[in-house]
Specification:
8 strands, metal ion binding, two-stranded antiparallel ribbon, Holocytochrome c-type synthase, 4-stranded antiparallel β-sheet, single chain
Length: 351
């Protein structure tokens, strides 16, 4: 899901997002709804009109890794020479200008408006999703001339939803660990359900905006890059397990991968944290609605990333395996009975 998309009038069924991957596909190619991960054809030299405002976040070609600075408040202007790299935005490795004009053979109009995401940039503004018209033009530019025009808005809706889902997962990690491993452990030690209650997100664990820590600024997405041809170590291990024990671990590979670089701040200052995202396609609903699964976690670039993953997943597993939920219920029942006994004792004194 390499584009950041918006949808002014959603025409697609809503896809579900879950952190644990299962999918029926038997190869690592994007599904038909996501035909944007082939390599770009060489630039034709014909300049497109500069109709895209700064801040667009479209698909990142896998062969153009981003090495942009950790934070920037304004996006640089493209150089005047004709080199490919000079025409790419270093925050997302896409062309600075994406045409928002109707294609010559287009059979119907597409919305031109762009919507803001809920994802903050380094300067505090919000990343924007390209319009359906920009998406269609970009797909034509990549050679997908058979894309049905009436399906573009649906594709935009799915892409928008998946990017919001990925950010919601990242927010969940940041709420737990922005202040460090020890603070994260104190939040996670009683399992995921109790952690969400502590964080105030029990009603909506996939909330993309709630940030209750007034002393620490919320995270920001600095830049991102798509790497659909590079399987993450976890995804590769799952494929080996599926090969060795197909009855137990059968799981086709993800159809896409992203790396998102997030600014994390606390009392000690700000730093950059890399997250890896695997995108899986699940079995569609009986009604035909698509189902996607996201596996979002901090990259293991050092001991901290490994510790965060171990703390969050390990504590939840331990809490469940040792009957933590049952202990909580018994404790609540004992407290309820104690209160009833106290009320009954006071009633007898008055009698």
């Amino acid at each position: 899901m390499g584009w950041f998309w918006a949808d002014t009038a959603p025409a697609a069924p809503v896809a579900r997002v879950a952190p644990h991957p299962t999918m029926p596909r038997d190869n690592a190619q994007p599904p038909p709804a996501c035909p944007m991960h082939n390599k770009m054809p060489p630039p034709s030299g014909k300049a497109e009109p500069p109709s895209t405002p700064a801040g667009a976040c479209p698909y990142v070609p896998p062969d153009q890794a981003s090495n942009a600075p950790a934070s920037t408040t304004t996006e640089p202007e493209p150089a005047q020479n004709t080199g490919l790299l000079s025409r790419l935005n270093p925050l997302n490795n896409m062309f600075f200008n994406l045409s928002n004009e109707r294609a010559s053979h287009q059979t119907q109009d597409l919305p031109l408006s762009r919507e803001q995401s809920t994802i903050p940039k380094a300067d505090g503004s919000l990343w924007e999703y390209p319009s359906p018209q920009q998406m269609y033009n970009a797909m034509l530019r990549k050679g997908y001339t058979d894309t049905p025009v009436d399906a573009v808005e649906s594709m935009v809706s799915v892409h928008n939803f998946l990017n919001e889902g990925a950010w919601a997962e990242i927010m969940g990690w940041e709420r737990r660990f922005s202040r460090g491993i020890l603070e994260g452990y104190s939040i996670c030690k009683r399992g995921e359900e109790n952690a969400n209650k502590t964080l105030g997100t029990a009603e909506d664990p996939f909330d993309t905006t709630t940030w209750t820590d007034k002393a620490v600024p919320p995270p920001k997405l600095l830049r991102f890059t798509g790497r659909p041809t590079e399987m993450t170590p976890k995804a590769q291990i799952m494929q080996w397990a599926a090969w060795g024990w197909p009855g137990k671990f059968a799981s086709p590979p993800p159809f896409d991968r992203h790396d998102w670089f997030v600014e994390r701040c606390n009392e000690k200052g700000c730093e950059e944290v890399r997250y890896v995202i695997d995108y899986y396609e699940g079995e569609p609903e009986p009604t035909g609605e698509p189902v996607f699964y996201l596996d979002v976690r901090p990259a293991i670039d050092g001991p901290r990333g490994a510790a965060e993953r171990l703390v969050r997943w390990g504590t939840d597993t331990w809490w469940t395996a040792t009957g933590g939920v049952v202990r909580e219920l018994k404790k609540a029942e004992a407290e309820r009975k104690k209160r009833e006994d106290e009320i009954a004792a006071q009633s007898r004194q008055y009698n």
